[in-house]
Amino acid sequence: MLGKAMETLFIRVWVMMKLNLFFWLFSAAGGVFLGMGPALKVISELFVAHGFEYKEITLKEGWQLFKHHFQRGNVLFLGFATIAVFLAYNLYLSLQVQGLLFLMIDFILVFALLYLFSTFMYVLIFDANYDISLGHLVRLGFTSNFSSFITFLKMIIGSGMILGFTWKYKGLILFGTVALLFIWNYLATKYWRTEIEGRLE
To answer: What is the DSSP string of 34-84?
Structure first.
């Protein structure tokens, strides 16, 4: 029993490491800036398709996905990244000013950034699960945050803990952080995905 549990743990850790290394490899292949979006698409597609079946997750399939999703991955990533930079810059400016009004604005901008992050996670997850247009994909991701506040909290708190752990152990940036963020959010949204699949049947 213990041996089986240890084997399962090692397999899951290896899948996480493998996906994370794929992310950095394909990011580099796209020149980093134009590679990160498609690389995120690669690890999301691979995990949704194969889960923790580590033998099925191959570099060859990853490369095919990278080429196939290069444009779409960049449109999604750069679109969300642009909004995130805009919100973060406004938050930075707002923090320079004291007063109750600007404190309220600070909270609104922080919430908007967290909401944007969870929406992007939903978009990655749904895009790997369904064949859907970009417009409908973004709307589905945006509205999914309203499906369950508990799920939203799970995504934000879990992701925050992963990033906090990464801050303490920087080696995770190379070997785990990105893949772990996606896997955590994929598992955290299981209930809502099941609801959607039930409605589609």
So the answer is: TTHHHHHHHHHHHHHHHTT-GGG--HHHHHHHHHHTHHHHHHHHHHHHHHH
